[in-house]
Write a structure and sequence with these properties.
With 372 residues, this protein is an all-alpha fold. It folds into two domains: 265 residues, no CATH class; 69 residues. It is 68% helix and 2% strand. It has a two-stranded antiparallel ribbon. Helix 10 packs antiparallel against helix 14 and helix 14 packs across helix 15. The termini are far apart. The relative contact order is 0.12.
């Protein structure tokens, strides 16, 4: 009797070949994508200082600088505005871009940290395509930035809302009642500061308290809108979401590419000084381009090649339900959309190449897990 003898390694190879397509199928990609995005969200939730610092910067510009520059920097009627607007209204798209920009650079910092600790090697040696892994991490960072952006928009809504004032005979002044909305956040921040000093409460208790305070603050905001009969926002908070996502992808792709250039965490301060601040100030985030052209034609040309300018303008038009300005022939000017999309594809492709262990910049440092 002839009996076919099957070698064990042949059986193992056959089983691996049968399981590989199922493991890398749509459900496998979905599980990988969900895991990477959820890791970014959990990292954001555990780093509370990152959340507050991301809001402090734009709020300082909104509450302090905008109030001081209101009488100095006048804004003429330019698209998408149909009338004269206050300076604090003009800078809102730029401040949203600031949140996206700084969050993108924080993501690049985490990439450098993961590379030094070896976590990057674990991610990039998985059987999934490197472009899919980097794009998933990019989307995770954009999701965090979108949450921060909408928290800022909620604060701005109550800042510009027509809320009654309370006349105080003791202070002899009118006290805006919208300050009452800051009671819960102020108490929460005070608690976090005290707890960080004495470390008296557990992490689980602090997390539950934050969720309770968040739910309570949302309930107070809803009650304020109904009780005072506040009108809807002057800007469209729904149509701005695609613009925030696309602009966040572009800035995240740039930061992803920069993370392959940064060798150590100590070099991140140099990136802050030579990349983030020039991109932010040499743009239309804080002042219209026509004012820059009047004062410095050279700076105006620099602003025109700055990708952050087009991201801010894309957000600006999206806040009013528009994609671009209406030209004289009736067509839409889609320059902002095209430029942001082109920069996203360019830098995302550069980041995928840079993180290639055999060809990219990472290869020169001995692989993704080493700091070289």
């Amino acid at each position: 009797m002839n009996v076919d003898i099957v070698r064990p390694d042949t059986v193992i190879e056959a089983q691996y070949a049968a399981e590989a397509p199922r493991r890398l199928g749509p459900l496998g990609y979905l599980a990988c994508f969900r895991g990477i995005v959820w890791r970014e969200v959990l990292r954001f939730l555990h780093q509370r200082e990152r959340f507050f610092s991301a809001l402090v910067r734009p709020l300082v510009w909104l509450f302090i600088f905008a109030a001081g520059f209101r009488q100095v920097l006048g804004v003429s009627i330019i698209p998408p505005y149909e009338t004269y607007v206050l300076y604090e209204v003009y800078v809102v798209p730029g401040l949203l871009g600031m949140i996206l920009l700084f969050n993108a650079m924080q993501s690049s910092l985490s990439m450098v940290y993961d590379r030094e600790t070896g976590a990057m090697r674990t991610l990039l040696v998985s059987p999934f395509p490197r472009s899919f892994l980097l794009l998933s991490k990019l989307i995770g960072g954009v999701s965090v930035a979108a949450i921060q952006s909408y928290v800022f928009l909620a604060i701005f809504y109550f800042w510009e809302a027509d809320i009654p004032t309370y006349r105080s005979d003791y202070w002899e002044a009118d006290i805006p009642l919208n300050l009452s909305l800051l009671v819960v956040p102020a108490l929460l921040i005070l608690f976090l500061i005290i707890n960080s000093a004495i470390d008296a409460f557990s992490e689980a208790f602090v997390s539950r308290l934050i969720w309770i305070a968040t739910a309570l603050e949302v309930a107070v905001m809803v009650f304020a809108v109904v009780y005072w009969g506040l009108s809807p926002p002057s800007m469209n908070y729904f149509t701005v979401l695609p613009a925030l996502v696309l602009a966040g992808l572009m800035l995240g792709a740039i930061s992803l590419f920069l993370s392959s250039v940064i060798k150590q965490l100590e070099n991140f301060a140099g990136v802050m000084n030579f990349v983030i601040f020039p991109m932010f100030f040499a743009s239309s985030a804080l002042y219209p381009l026509w004012r820059i052209r009047e004062s410095s034609p050279l700076l105006y040309e620099i602003c025109r090649v700055n990708p952050f300018t087009y991201a801010v303008e894309l957000i600006r038009f999206a806040l009013y339900g528009q994609v671009g300005a209406r030209l004289e022939d009736g067509s839409l000017d889609l320059t902002n959309l095209y430029v942001v999309t082109a920069y996203t594809v360019l830098f995302l492709g550069a980041a995928v190449y840079a993180y290639n262990p055999s060809k990219g910049l990472i290869a020169r440092r001995g692989g993704p897990g080493g700091a070289g």
